[in-house]
């Protein structure tokens, strides 16, 4: 049986899970792959923690670069971040080591550079765990759907944000209250910005868009808006209009460009993604021949993410090639990305206005001036920041036009607070 030596750098939550799988399920992995995958070295500052996992002391080092310089075949980078992690990954590739990582921020920012380095040195990088935890969505795109042009990707790919919106929807509580519950349950970090501001999901959709459309998409190409401004009132109005609000990641081609965005969106209540609740993730990928396909499961956590990391190790051990299309392996593969002003969507608009006659007419007049057609409108006598809410949904319009109309509407003397808008994904 062929032997493959693995070195792990970073033994935190995910790294500890990888160690446990390689030690506890060694026989299962060998039976299924025909390869003897050996845990040869683990790098972590906390040596005692690693020893408690059953790793022999002579296998443990406190410097990740010692793993890179050793005789391991595969380097598993699990320290996160884009500084030291980048140096370790690049050094490993230049030293002829294959790399497995769960580092979404790294590949969303430096994917082109790292994959070109891998290509030049005849080694591979796999990063299934970077998107969707244990859900094999990258493998699906790169292998199972290889015969299809990808017409659309819709994803709920941040469990923390999805949990918060689920709590707000089912309990009728505020964002702040739901965030507190998420923190108490361990779903939200002390600083939840990456999750609730959409940055984590933006890293992930940049990776998926790169694979799906054969051109590098970086985090800077993604339009990002988080969920902090969502109120229980918006969730109630969404329900009245037949929608649920989700933090949605979207990637789709349009006239030679790719549209990549992350933001709160209203989905029809009968849409399959509307039923994805709690910390679960789901990704709906539509191919031109296969049609819509759904990938659902735990998007984070030690066990699901570690499972994906070990699957990548097994793929490399079995010689299953790269985890990205050939077009991305060479430097210079680019694809034009749409700017936010070019987006076309239906919209939900919530105005906060004084409670007196003629308000709706003034708002409607300006929307008409910009050729924005109103689909539904609703005004309620609910006290809200010194005014009352006036809500509308529109037919399709450009994001640029809607923003311009809102800027003019917000200058009206009857408007008491900046207007909130949310895209509708029909």
Q: Would you mind describing this structure in some detail?
A:
The chain is an alpha/beta fold. The chain contains 15 helices and 17 strands. The strands form 2 sheets. Strands 7, 8, 9, 10, 11, 12, 13, 14, 15, 16 and 17 form an 11-stranded mixed sheet that branches. It has a 6-stranded parallel sheet with strand order 3-2-1-4-5-6, with helices on both faces. Strand 4, helix 5 and strand 5 (98-101) form a beta-alpha-beta unit. The longest helix is centred in the N-terminal third of the chain and has 17 residues, at 104-120. It is elongated.
Strand content: 25-35%
Cα Rg? 24 Å
Q: What is the makeup of the main sheet?
A: 11 strands, mixed
Helix content: 25-40%
- Residue ranges: pLDDT <50 for 5 or more in a row? none
* Count of extended strands: 17
């Amino acid at each position: 049986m062929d032997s493959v030596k693995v070195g792990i750098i970073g033994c935190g939550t995910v790294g500890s899970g990888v160690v446990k799988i390689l030690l506890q399920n060694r026989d299962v992995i060998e039976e299924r792959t025909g390869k003897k995958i050996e845990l040869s070295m683990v790098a972590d500052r906390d040596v005692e923690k690693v020893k408690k996992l059953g790793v022999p002391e002579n296998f443990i080092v406190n410097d990740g670069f010692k793993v890179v310089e050793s005789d391991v075949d595969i380097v598993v980078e699990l320290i996160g971040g884009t500084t030291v992690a980048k140096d370790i990954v690049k050094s490993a590739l230049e030293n002829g080591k294959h790399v497995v990582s769960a580092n979404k921020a790294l590949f969303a920012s430096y994917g082109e550079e790292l994959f070109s380095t891998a290509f030049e040195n005849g080694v591979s990088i796999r990063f299934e765990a970077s998107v969707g935890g244990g859900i094999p969505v990258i493998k699906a795109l790169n292998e199972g759907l290889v015969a299809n042009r990808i017409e659309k990707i819709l994803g709920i790919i941040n469990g923390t944000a999805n949990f918060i919106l689920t709590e707000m929807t089912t309990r009728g509580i505020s964002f702040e209250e739901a965030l507190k519950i998420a923190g108490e349950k361990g779903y939200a970090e002390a600083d939840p910005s990456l999750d609730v501001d959409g940055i984590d999901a933006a890293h992930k959709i940049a990776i998926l868009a790169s694979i799906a459309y054969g051109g590098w998409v970086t985090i800077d190409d993604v339009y990002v808006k988080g969920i902090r401004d969502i109120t229980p009132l918006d969730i109630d109005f969404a329900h009245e209009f037949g929608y649920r609000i989700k933090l949605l990641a979207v990637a789709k081609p349009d006239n030679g460009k790719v549209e990549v965005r992350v933001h709160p969106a209203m989905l029809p209540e009968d849409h399959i993604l509307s039923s994805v609740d709690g910390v679960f993730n789901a990704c709906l990928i539509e191919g031109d021949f296969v049609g819509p396909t759904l990938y659902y499961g735990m998007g984070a956590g030690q066990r699901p993410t570690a499972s994906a990391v070990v699957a990548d190790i097994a793929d490399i051990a079995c010689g299953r090639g790269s985890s990205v299309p050939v077009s991305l392996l060479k430097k210079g593969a680019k694809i034009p990305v749409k700017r936010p002003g070019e987006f076309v969507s239906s919209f939900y608009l919530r105005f906060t206005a004084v409670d007196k006659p003629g308000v709706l007419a003034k708002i409607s007049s300006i929307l008409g001036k910009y050729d924005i057609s109103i689909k539904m409108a609703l005004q309620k006598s609910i006290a809200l920041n010194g005014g009352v809410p006036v809500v509308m949904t529109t037919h399709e319009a450009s994001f640029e036009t809607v923003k311009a109309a809102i800027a003019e509407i917000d200058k009206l003397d009857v408007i008491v607070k900046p207007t909130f808008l949310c895209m509708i994904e029909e």
